[in-house]
Predict the 3D structure of the following.
Amino acid sequence: MTLKKLAVTFALGSWALATVGATSVLAQSHINPPDSALGAPSIATGESHIGAMTGHATDGEKLYIRYCIGCHGPDGNADGMNAQWIDPKPRDFTKAVFKCRSTPTGTLPVDSDLFNAMTRGFVSTNMPQWRSLTPQQRADLVAFIKTWSPRWAQEKPGAPITIPPETPDTPESVERGKVLYQTTLKCVECHGPKGLGDGPSAPSLRDNDGNPIKPYDFVNGSRFKCGTTNEDLYRIFMTGLDGTPMPSWSDFVDPNQAWDLVHYLRTLQRNYHPPHTAKAATKSTDQKGG
């Protein structure tokens, strides 16, 4: 058995151990002062609101014990029994700092941001998609996750940014985006001149907790952490990935420039097929089949 397989086997065993008897561990370690203004939101009253759904922390607690405690830990601080085997590390919910948000940098996400992240999962990490859970269960988990940090009792989520209509994807737009990437914003320092995530700063990059972090590889990456569409990529530019070296560029580029950058980065992606191309291919196939 290779060292890697041994580590995976041990991690799976740890997951099982973490799940068995986790109820008592969580009950002993989850701290919620009676006065919610002085501490994290109460499990008894904590809620999330996603569309017409209302999530309840009391139900989310049971789901957390079953599905999340092995990595995120009984205290929500990314110290689960499996965490030592995971790279990148699990999210520390006690800090309430999240990469994927529709809100400005430095602000709390709205509930739907956490719901979408849970549904989507995080590519190139150990965080899977949780589509196997019902939407209501995911909403319940969002409500419970918010009980780990006092930020949720002391602050309101930021207002989601407005994403303007996409500008035309033209050769001129791509060229302007290339200048932004290669020169103006110096994206090459981290992501590299060809977008391979191998820029000169890449080896030294660390997240806010001091853990090594790799820049995104646009060429070989299957999808972005925070979505798949051009709007998702625009949102990443303008909100940044909090807790990482990836900043918000909202103070440095205007919306048109952000779209130019989106269009240029799409040209670096080896496996990207524009939506209109996919539709055209489907139409051509349908015509041939007729």
In short: The chain has two domains: 3-154, 171-275.
